[in-house]
Amino acid sequence: MDDASGEAAASAGQRSDCRTGTGTGDSALENQTLSKRQMKKLLKQQKWEEERELRKQRRKERKQHRKQQRQNSQQESRGDGQSARKHPRRELTPSSLRLVVDCSFDNLMLIKDVRKLHKQIQRCYAENRRASHPVQFYLTSLGGQLKQSMDEKDKGWVNWK
């Protein structure tokens, strides 16, 4: 009885080896014992490997096509006297509104809050510059922690108009 159970275990082990492809049988035998999912994966991988050169060629063609389009657009833009990247300056109509940010309360703030305020001021300034109707933007009582933060993080703020 022990021999029968040992033979059954040995034959089950051989079957599991054939199914996973780790057995020593030929490829035809392994293909027959692979599961459907394993066969699909194997075929998909083989197809992927076969089409590698085709994908590489397509990538090259797309790259050349994009390069050609860029060159054509640059030639067209040079004819107008404007570069493709620069946008023509639009007419700004200044607004009579004034925006004043009072910075005298920065001594009551934590340094973390001062840095957040600095970022908010930067964002306001940038959006105001891009606006079609920019307002007059003023910072008052600038000093203390906020001025120090602006000097450390953004040295160009002194050139703001």
Automatic annotation (TrEMBL):
Documented EC number(s): 2.1.1.221
Low complexity bias spans: 1-13
Keyword Methyltransferase tagged: yes
Domain annotation SAM-dependent MTase TRM10-type: ranges: 83-161
Catalytically driven reaction(s): guanosine(9) in tRNA + S-adenosyl-L-methionine = N(1)-methylguanosine(9) in tRNA + S-adenosyl-L-homocysteine + H(+)
Organism of derivation: Ataeniobius toweri
Chain intervals with Basic residues compositional bias: 55-69
Protein name: tRNA (guanine(9)-N(1))-methyltransferase
Keywords noted in UniProt: Methyltransferase, S-adenosyl-L-methionine, Transferase
Region (Disordered) location: 1-93
